[in-house]
Design goal:
alpha/beta; Rossmann fold; 6 strands; about 10% strand
């Protein structure tokens, strides 16, 4: 879709595959593009390569599933990053899996870790680091010292995707996952849309109402959909 390839998976299938990668020692990273990230990929070849180079590319956003239907290649459903990681944490907690939380403002990862420990008693939060350090070597050293199985990277797009593409091979974690503002949600700093809004595919609207400053970012959606329609009419397979 506009140069970005997606894996056609459900939330459960994606989490199971990620868990298998971790248990099997497969190294890689996971991205969860929404229409905004797909649009960024049109303008940045480095970002497009980073996204397409991921082990799993999951459809996070109703605009992605709508675009797939427009192109005549419908996906089986959305895979919101927060639902994916929630399911994966549940699987990891069964075997005492270790996770490192990297990103967000100072104090957020710590707050998220406390709530995750209570929510998933078997999950080991091996370490945390905020996203405000420019010393990549120091961050990687801290991550590797904690020996996590999974590294959650919440630096926001496109920074997190580029960071993983450049550094995933240098960290000891088998798998890295880019998840934007997930740590804010887990920490309780940001409230997620109620379940009925999510079921209707209106989580984006709830977030816009909650934070009108997102309007500028949402303005990309019409341009994105027009580009998808045009690519379909041209028969370019969504390129």
């Amino acid at each position: 879709m506009l140069g970005v390839g997606f894996d056609d998976m459900t939330v459960a299938e994606a989490a199971k595959r990620a868990a298998e990668m971790i248990s099997g020692g497969e190294r890689g990273y996971v991205v969860t593009p929404n229409p905004e990230i797909v649009w960024m990929c049109r303008k940045s070849s480095a970002l497009r390569e980073a996204v397409n180079g991921a082990s799993l590319v999951l459809a996070d956003g109703v605009g992605v599933t709508l675009g797939a239907r427009i192109l005549g290649r419908p996906l089986r459903g959305r895979v919101p990053g927060i639902d994916f990681i929630d399911t994966l944490f549940g699987l990891m907690s069964l075997s005492g899996g270790r996770v490192f939380l990297f990103g967000a403002k100072p104090g957020v990862a710590e707050a998220a870790s406390e709530k995750l420990r209570r929510r998933y008693p078997g999950l080991v939060v091996a370490g945390v680091c905020d996203g405000y350090s420019d010393d990549v070597s120091a961050v990687i050293g801290k991550i590797n010292a904690a020996a996590p199985d999974l590294l959650v990277v919440c630096l926001g797009a496109p920074k997190q995707e580029l960071w993983m593409a450049q550094n995933a091979r240098h960290v000891s974690a088998a798998l890295c996952v880019g998840l934007g503002g997930a740590l804010d949600v887990f920490a309780g700093a940001v409230r997620r849309a109620p379940a009925p809004w999510r079921r209707l595919g209106l989580e984006w609207l709830y977030r816009l109402i909650s934070d009108p400053r997102r309007l500028k970012r949402m303005a990309i959606l019409p341009q994105y959909l027009l580009a998808v329609i045009w690519s379909g009419l041209r028969g370019k397979g969504g390129r």
